[in-house]
Amino acid sequence: MKNAVAAVFCLVWLFPVYWMVNTALKPRPEVMTPTPHFWPHQPTLDNFTAAVTQPQFLTDLRNSVVVVAATVLASIVLGIFAAAALSRFRFPGRRTILVVILAVQMLPATAMLIPLFTMFNSLDLLGTYLALILAYVATVLPFSIWVMRGFFAAIPAEVEEAAQIDGAGTWRILVSVLFPLVAPGVIATGIFAFIAAWNDYLIAYTFMPDESRYTLPVWLASFTNPHTGTDFGAQMAASVLFSVPVIVFFLLIQRNLVAGMSAGAVKG
Amino acid sequence: MTARLDRRDLAPLWLLSPAGLVLAVVTLAPIGFLVFTSFTDYNQRTLFTGVYTFVGADQYVTLLRSGAFWASLVRTVLFTAAMVAGSVLIGMGVSHLSTRLGRAWRYTVTVVLIVAWAMPNVASSLVWNWLFQPGYGVANWMLAQLRIFGDTTSLNWAQDPALAYVSIWLLIVWQAVPFIALTLYAAETQVPHEYKEAARLDGASEFAVYRIVTLTFLRPTLLLVTILSVIWDYNVFNQIWLISRGGPGDATSTLGVYTYKTAFVGFQVGHGAAVSVVTTLLLLALTAVYIRNLLRAGEDL
């Protein structure tokens, strides 16, 4: 009985993902049928070819890669030092900083979008990579600090003391003792940062009006063409390509997922 | 705990300043700027000329008198309640189911949950549009097979207020259940067996054991998960935008969509900023509760 319930749940919950893959593998006549085919009768990779040979695909992929890589790098480098300060030292104002970092996570997206938009507009930055990277750092850096702080806090104080007895100074202890120990945390945080920036639609959609500066999510959503109708096969193939890296990363960091999620790393 | 390093050490200051400076520029300054903008008539013209006038609390007065704002606030509250209730209840069910499954089934359920959770919301919104597509969508076909609602083949979900809500609700719940179920499951495995055994020996039914013993232990986690869900669902934008654009008319225009339309479609940026400030203040009240609970739950700050 309970296994039957589990089976039904799995079928229902997996169905949308299955339908995406199923549609992606069907030739067009099988996609557009009044009676849906529950598996591709004549499987084909044509939809994938159609998706990646779209005129903007490579440009937009490059935009995404540049912006996401810069965001991940900046958040890790800035975040690791801040996380070290907030977890290995006691100083006045520490709690306040932590509460602010956590609260900033919960802001509605538009609350950041409007002022960043007007700021970048007056600085003439709209439509540039820099605008997008700065906006992503604003969303990603706070949770990166929060998540890495957790990894630092897990290192026992004895490790630090031992290094101190050996005569190592503050910087030495940080760089050669603590940083290597938080390496797994850095990777997990980097993955969270990647997912957040890679998935963003709203900011890119608002800040990058020019088609040649679209990122992949905006490219994906703009597949809908009111004149020719949506090519659902190609759109689903593109969705598969876009989602696969994220799904793989999720499965890789599943043990850290819940902790990262509570810090606002991955939103619904 | 730590702090073996010299207390007068200036290291934390140096360590914090790069991130602090960046966050001050890209996070704190914008928040200040948002509040400032909400007291101006910043509009489309301003985007080109940079000219705006200070209008005091006018934007807020207009806002509080605007039927569209109140309507979208009410919509947001009701819709958030429906999404949170749906996802928390199903999440509790899946979590409890997982505790009773054998290893293979439990593993399968976990993987399914993670895959659904991992789907980027832009991709899943597009999948939803396709599932609920009039004409060729598989959802309409399945409904037609039930032979309850008649011929549903050309049902246009995004163009009907109630149906648009239903499809967005399904999408949000589908995406929200995994986090809730996995978090609750982690907590549910910590419930001491002795208590359940004792309740069973006293003749309690399985349902009573769950209600009296398990739920008591789950309460703190359940509260955190619920508050987080409220915050996230209150902020939902992408899915609504990509499925219905807030339509038909304003039917699914929640506060996020309303703000976006005001600020970036009508380019009444000043007014949009005021809506955003009010939205944020309402949310801040919830966030404060969340952080207090996190502190109480033993998170060491």
From TrEMBL, chain A:
The chain crosses the membrane at residues 65-85, 97-117, 129-152, 173-198, 232-253. It comes from the Bacteria. Residues 61-253 form the ABC transmembrane type-1 domain. CDD domains: TM_PBP2. It is found in: Cell membrane. It is a multi-pass membrane protein. Pfam families: BPD_transp_1 (PF00528). Keywords: Cell membrane, Membrane, Transmembrane, Transmembrane helix, Transport. Its main location: membrane. PANTHER family: INNER MEMBRANE ABC TRANSPORTER PERMEASE PROTEIN YCJP, MALTOSE TRANSPORT SYSTEM PERMEASE-RELATED. This is Carbohydrate ABC transporter permease. It comes from Actinoplanes flavus.
